[in-house]
Design brief:
Elements (H helix, E strand, L loop, with lengths): L1 E5 L5 H4 L7 E4 L7 E4 L15 E4 L9 H6 L3 E3 L6 H16 L2 H9 L7 H8 L12 E5 L3 H12 L3 E5 L5 H6 L5 E3 L2 H4 L5 E4 L13 H6 L4 E5 L8 H10 L2 E6 L12 E3 L8 H21 L19 E8 L4 H11 L3 E10 L2 E9 L4 H8 L4 E6 L1
Parallel strand pairs: 1-2, 1-3, 3-4, 4-5, 6-7, 6-9, 7-8, 9-10, 10-11, 11-12
Antiparallel strand pairs: 13-15, 13-16, 14-15
Helix pairs in contact: 3-6
Pfam family, one: 2-Hacid_dh
Family: Belongs to the D-isomer specific 2-hydroxyacid dehydrogenase family.
Pathway: Amino-acid biosynthesis; L-serine biosynthesis; L-serine from 3-phospho-D-glycerate: step 1/3
Length: 386
């Protein structure tokens, strides 16, 4: 029986994917085998040695200490694409709302309550909220993953001319992208072409302040920006200056800050991107399935700190080894399995940055003594026998 701790309200649709005969799910277990989390901050949490995996029901993992998890042999999963439709729909909605000044117009209209000449006031006042249609305009999409590709495709259907920039685009995303999206190999070449720019990349040290004073200087005067990925991707000081000068005429974001609230041309939503029951269900289902498959079978899918490794069982016992990505590890592992008289039926080894994962199915005396010897290899972090 595996114990699972939930640190946020996880959709029951997802929890139902955890077999009750194999998983004990609780909010207060002290030493869980796995954790299901949404937004709870784990950066300063001390993890028990028993913890094997953390599954984040969502894409961002900046609330999880990835390096420390790797050092302790804790596999961290996320759910890329599970909330993609929810975020993409909101981005398209805000693209239109920002272009047509919907938020400011709606707020102004609320002030007409009790006006006996409301019809005349509406006709007189609407001129100040005249906006533009998006059809025929140019949209630049930074990041063409699950969300960015959906936004790009939808914008094409709405009659926009779409440019996309993503030097790391996956094969799956490329296949799903409309052939009408024009590919740019250089961000600086794309920015001057766009009436609207939307950013859809993860927050990393290398992507912090992707939109900054230098990139904004390359943009069209009056460009509109959308940020429904991470607040830190846009440099606030540079943005505020661009809003003051008119370089940026509108900024739509899901990440409000004190500096942005009340600014003309800025629409802040309260982190609504994935806040739909459908997205929460999708994220919970994917997270639960990833956690279940790893705990039961050792398979790793959609991990952010470990390599992708999955294979059907080939018989016998399964040995799962998390170790440092160093030369000679395979020979050290197989030397011990040979010494134990094991017959390896199937074996896979993959690495991700400085970490690696070796999984093998073997017949013979697969026991705790062998696990202890494997654990004694200096670069080995964790050994599991399933």
């Amino acid at each position: 029986m595996f114990t699972i701790k939930t640190l946020n309200a996880i959709s029951p649709v997802g929890l139902a994917k955890l077999n009750k005969n194999l998983f004990d799910v609780s909010v207060d277990t002290d030493a869980p085998d796995g954790i299901l989390v949404r937004s709870a901050d784990l950066l300063n949490t001390t993890f028990d040695d028993n913890l094997l995996a953390i599954a984040r029901a969502g894409a961002g993992v900046n609330n999880i200490p990835l390096d420390r998890c790797s050092e302790q042999g804790i596999v961290v999963f996320n759910t890329p694409g599970a909330n993609a439709n929810a975020v993409a729909e909101l981005v398209i909605g805000m693209l239109i709302a920002g272009s047509r000044n919907v938020a400011a117009a709606a707020q102004w209209t609320q002030g007409l309550a009790g006006d006996p000449a409301m019809a005349k006031s509406v006709e007189k006042g609407k001129k100040q909220f005249v906006g533009n249609e998006i059809k025929g305009k140019t949209l630049g999409v930074i990041g063409l993953g699950a969300i960015g590709s959906r936004v790009a495709n939808c914008a094409i259907e709405l009659g926009m001319e779409v440019y996309g920039y993503d030097p790391y685009i996956s094969i799956d995303a490329a296949w799903n992208l409309s052939s009408q999206v024009r590919h740019c190999v250089n961000l600086n070449d794309m920015l001057p072409l766009c009436d609207y720019i939307t950013i859809h990349v993860p927050y990393l040290p290398t992507t912090k302040d992707t939109i900054n004073a230098q990139t904004l200087a390359l943009c069209k005067d009056g460009v509109k920006l959308l940020n429904y990925a991470r607040g830190e991707l846009v440099n606030t000081d540079a943005l505020l200056e661009a809003l003051d000068t008119g370089k940026v005429s509108g900024y739509m974001t899901d990440f409000p800050t004190e500096a942005l609230l009340g600014r003309p041309g800025v629409i802040c939503t309260p982190h609504l991107g994935a806040s739909t029951p459908e997205a929460e269900d999708n994220c919970a289902v994917m997270a639960a399935q990833e956690l279940s498959d790893y705990l039961k079978n050792g398979n790793i899918t959609h991990s952010v700190n470990m390599p992708e490794v999955h294979q059907p069982r080939a018989g016998g016992k399964r040995i799962c080894i998390i170790h440092k990505n160093e030369p000679g590890m395979i020979s050290q592992i197989t030397a011990l399995t040979t010494e134990a008289g094991l017959n390896i039926e199937n074996m896979v080894n993959k690495s991700k940055k400085n970490m690696a994962y070796t999984m093998l199915d073997a017949t013979g005396a697969v026991n705790d003594a062998l696990a202890a010897k494997l654990s004694a290899i200096p670069a080995v972090v964790r050994v599991r026998i399933l």
